[in-house]
Write a structure and sequence with these properties.
By secondary structure, the protein is an alpha/beta fold. It is 37% helix and 16% strand. The protein has six helices and six strands, in the order E-H-E-H-H-E-H-E-H-E-E-H. Strands 1, 2, 3, 4, 5 and 6 form a six-stranded parallel β-sheet that branches. Helix 1 packs across helix 6.
Length: 202
Amino acid sequence: MNGLAEAPQSDRRPLVVGIGGTIGGPSSTERALRIALDAACEQGFRTRMFGGDDMAKLPLYDPKAVTRTPEEQEFVTTVRAASALIIASPGYHGSISGVVKNALDLLEETARDADRPYLADMPVGLIATAYGWQATGSTIAALRSIVHALRGWPTPFAATINSQLTKFDDEGGANDPAVVEQLRLIGKQVARFAPLAGLADT
């Protein structure tokens, strides 16, 4: 997919980081996140996605740990370098998944950063997928609450996807063009608001 390969360190374009997916292979959540990230890439941003396989390598967050694994360090360092985030979670029992929450808990490592603690002033796009409509709304609400607690700015539009109805393919599309456009709008919004927040490179 365009924009999802590791960019060279010399690449000075601002960065959008995607966090989301499920353990155990490609999922609707991860495919939805890729569409949104591709849209941000088209707006001139480079992207990096932490999908289900990446999050599976993060140990359960221990706030008292004195060292961090290489995977934890990479995750925190990458988020620190980001101009915007897109977070996608499946709805599990009416809220976000454990692996997504564990990754977000790790951002406590940024609490004392002088330049930007947590996600302060960062635009954050949100995506929720669930097998049915009920969990999508509560999952988006949970994500918004977490982003607010981390001092970020949820973008005005959030995508809720009923995976019982919407089926994604391996080519970066879905059987419902309206869903694809909603996901692309999220990518465009984080790209649009990142410069307003003063986070994007000039």
